[in-house]
Amino acid sequence: MTTRPPTTRLTTTRPGFIRANSVSRALAAVVDRWTLLILAAAFQGTKRFDGWRNGIGISSNILTSRLERLVKLGCLQKAVVSDGKRRQEYRLTPMGADLYPTALMFWRFDRLWSHRRAMQPTTLTHATCGAWMTPVLVCANCRAPVRARDVRYEDGPGAGLERMPSPRSSRRIAASPDEGAKLHLLAGESIDHFGDRWTQQVLSTFFLGARRFDDIRIQCSVATNILADRLKLLVEHGTLQRRACAADPRHHEYVLTPKGMDLYPIILTLMKWGDRWLAGKSGPPLILSCARCSHVLDAVVVCDHCGGRLDPHDVSFRRG
Ligand SMILES: [Zn+2]
Ligand SMILES: [Zn+2]
What we know:
Elements: E1 17-19, H1 22-30, H2 33-43, H3 49-56, H4 60-73, E2 76-83, E3 85-92, H5 94-97, H6 100-113, E4 122-126, E5 131-132, E6 135-139, E7 151-155, E8 161-163, H7 197-206, H8 213-220, H9 224-236, E9 240-244, E10 252-256, H10 258-261, H11 264-277, E11 286-290, E12 299-303, E13 315-319
Antiparallel strand pairs: 1-8, 2-3, 4-5, 4-13, 6-12, 7-11, 9-10
Helix pairs in contact: 1-7, 1-11, 6-11, 7-8
């Protein structure tokens, strides 16, 4: 059974407002290039200021501001350790550690699709089974890989309109190929799709069923010229395809390519994280169910070799 468009009641018509969703909240909270690189390094054991600065080539002032924000948000916790001299460390909190599935889904996308990845190939080993593996997002109930077309949506208790998350950056910035090159986890182009808030918003509407220019414009509460620019960019990236509308060939519509579809696991892990940590008392804005087994969807990231759930302590990254 297919699920487009989702069975949600609300359409946005208020300028500056979007339909409440955990993806937008999560994207606004943690998804910018530097924050992702900081988190990726943290999952590989980085705890100290110098470790990040030397490891990902970030300037001290940007690192300071991003670490402070992650502490304020509740993803990192400061601790003082003394091993001869007193040093400050930043440790992942349960909220921060819960972004690990998202980090793995970024890695997976780059592994599968990024051309830059070829310059910095990494392998991922699962200690539990000893295999080189690719992490995969599956339904916890029926264990089928989660694909966008197999997911149903309905309004949850937190459904409604909310103000568009305030942007930290609404500019789009091209990635430099060297950025993150010292890092094993995130060196590809996945972050290009999430690097500015409009590209993020536009992309997430596709996974909620939007196809036509005007529908996307209304759902994202975005200006026409900005939307045209982002759609063009996503077509150039090979993420979207522009084609004549099936129902009315005088109009055009945009559909996700197979590459675009592969961003879905990133979106879904972010949604799950946002539901858990940012939805507050009102609860999740959307309830998802698996069309294959009809259970409420609990999407989990597992090893494609043994099917075991993945934990940072059991996964090692190696270049080459
Ligand atoms: Zn299922
Ligand atoms: Zn395994």
